[in-house]
Design goal:
Layout lengths: L3 E7 L1 H6 L5 H31 L9 H29 L1 H20 L4 H29 L5 H10 L1 H15 L7 H23 L6 H6 L3 H19 L11 E6 L4 H11 L1 H22 L2 H8 L7 H25 L2 H24 L5 H28 L6 H17 L1 H11 L3 H25 L8 H4 L3 H9 L1
Helix pairs in contact: 2-3, 2-5, 2-6, 2-7, 2-8, 2-13, 3-4, 3-5, 3-17, 3-18, 4-5, 4-8, 5-17, 6-14, 6-16, 7-8, 7-14, 11-12, 12-16, 12-17, 12-18, 12-19, 14-16, 15-16, 15-19, 16-17, 18-19
């Protein structure tokens, strides 16, 4: 059974949601959003150097092993999300987003020293382990530290920073994979050092972030939570120059707990919130298959079908990344104003249709290396916003006490089906050198996205500008209601 403490009444959520935007919030966005940038950097580096890693003077990987490396990395994401997700709800957001970043840092350095296919795959798995754990901790903290009125826009901007990582990886690959600048045997190793350098810097910045006051208040540490909120309010006053912060109203009564047993977690997800669970599964499977299937073989498609030199792949990835980053950046505010349901459904369906059209044009030989990149960019402009909103959705529609576990569950399900299977399937299709085979993969990915959009229309939650505790009542609040 849960280890319960006394029932308390607190105004912490209302105080956090009424805060005006300030430099303090920008620090949160940067320090936590860097996870997505690191993941984008990792994926891009492997995609860009794929054609280099198959050379005998490097690791001599086969096309199948390149696809397997992508799948192994995602498998690490899955294991890391599940393993660290429960720990994040049990031990706190801050402790876990520090630990998981250290794991990533050490593993990506180790990857640079890989000596054969097996060592490369092992280190890629451990790197994915750290990033998967990061997702659960940072998405939980991001939701709980930012005001409700801009939660959608902020979450989409943070998730969209994945594409800043791809841009950094693309630009760096143009230098590190240029044999006239860096030796072929060394450039790919140096590429992995970029992530480690960024991770060290962010590790220092994250030390300035507090534990989530919402997590503290639910775990019997209200006094500590009150102190942190007061400190945040003082910092916001200093940054904004507003001596009097906006008024707030509303309190929440909660029965505190140290942990939530697995039985209660399953009941909350598969009994009390079954329709939300089905929605999360559908959204995550669609976007992970769509992304991982196409992007993990981005470089291979260009080199195999369009004879693009391996050293030039970075130019195409950079252009592709810009389009993807602009999607959540320009559409993000609409998810708070127009609403979650119409925007998520619209972006999912639009991206699925555009990718299907791209597949048919590719099969008919109507595309060049430049035009297929343009079509990919158009499809992913919408898909990037939709995928970011999928993470937003699963982060906000479940109770506070199981938020990280819920994120981990949906990420694991989506990645296991779409992220692990996608790269293997697409690598085999590209390896067949038959456009008709690639078309099949595009149609599958497009159909999954359209299906996710339809599911959003049926089961979506109108969470825009609503406090997290109104979107999904905490388990402790429900227990307090029963006691009263």
């Amino acid at each position: 059974m849960s280890q319960h403490r006394e029932t308390v009444e607190t105004d912490i959520p209302a105080r956090m949601d009424r805060l005006p935007w300030s430099r303090w919030h920008w620090m949160v966005v940067f320090a936590l959003g860097i996870t997505w940038l690191l993941d984008g950097l990792e994926v891009t580096i492997v995609g860009a150097i794929a054609a280099v890693l198959v050379k005998p003077q490097t690791l001599g990987l086969s096309t199948g092993e390149i696809g397997l490396a992508g799948s192994v990395y995602v498998a690490g994401n899955v294991v890391g999300a599940v393993m660290f997700g429960y720990m994040t709800d049990r031990l706190g957001r801050k402790r876990l987003f520090q630990w998981t970043l250290v794991i990533y840092l050490l593993a990506t350095v180790a990857t640079a020293f890989s000596w054969n296919a097996l060592s490369f795959l092992v280190f890629r798995f451990i790197t994915g382990l750290g990033i998967g754990g990061e997702y659960t901790a940072i998405n939980s903290a991001t939701e709980e530290l930012n005001p409700a009125r801009v939660r959608g826009m902020v979450e989409l901007a943070i998730n969209g920073s994945w594409w800043l990582g791809t841009a950094v990886g693309a630009v760096s690959s143009l230098i590190l994979l240029n044999p006239k600048i860096v030796a072929v045997t060394l450039g790919w190793r140096l590429a992995f050092a970029l992530g480690a350098i960024l991770a060290v810097a962010v590790l220092m910045i994250r030390r300035l972030l507090p534990e989530s006051p919402r997590w503290l208040m639910s775990h019997g540490r209200v006094d500590e939570a009150e102190k942190i909120v007061a400190e945040i309010e003082d910092q916001v006053r200093g940054y904004t120059g507003q001596r009097d912060l906006p008024d707030y109203e509303g309190t929440i009564e909660m029965t505190q707990r140290e942990r939530t047993p697995l039985g209660e977690i399953f009941s909350a997800m598969f009994k009390d919130n079954l329709s939300r669970t089905i929605l999360g599964i559908g959204l995550m499977i669609g976007q992970t298959f769509f992304y991982n299937a196409v992007f993990f073989t981005f470089g291979l498609t260009l080199t195999t079908f369009f004879k693009v030199p391996a050293g030039d792949i970075g130019y195409y990835i950079f252009a592709f990344a810009v389009g993807n980053f602009l999607g959540p950046l320009t559409l993000g505010r609409l998810f708070d104003v127009v609403g979650r349901k119409p925007m998520i459904a619209g972006t999912y369906i639009a991206s699925g249709v555009l990718l299907a059209i791209t597949g048919f044009l590719f099969k008919n030989g109507s595309l060049s290396n430049v035009s297929i990149t343009a079509w990919w960019s158009a499809a992913f402009f919408f898909a990037s916003a939709g995928a970011s909103a999928a993470y937003l959705t699963v982060s906000e529609i479940f109770p506070l006490e199981i938020r990280a576990v819920a994120i981990a569950f949906f990420y694991a399900i989506g990645s296991a089906i779409g992220g692990i299977a996608g790269p293997i399937i697409f690598a085999a299709e590209v390896g067949s050198k038959k456009p008709s085979q690639v078309l099949v993969g595009y149609l599958i990915a497009g159909a999954l996205m359209v299906g996710g959009g339809a599911l959003e229309l049926l089961l979506g939650v109108a969470a825009e500008q609503e406090t997290l505790e109104d979107v999904s009542e905490p388990l402790g609040a429900k227990e307090a209601d029963r006691r009263n």
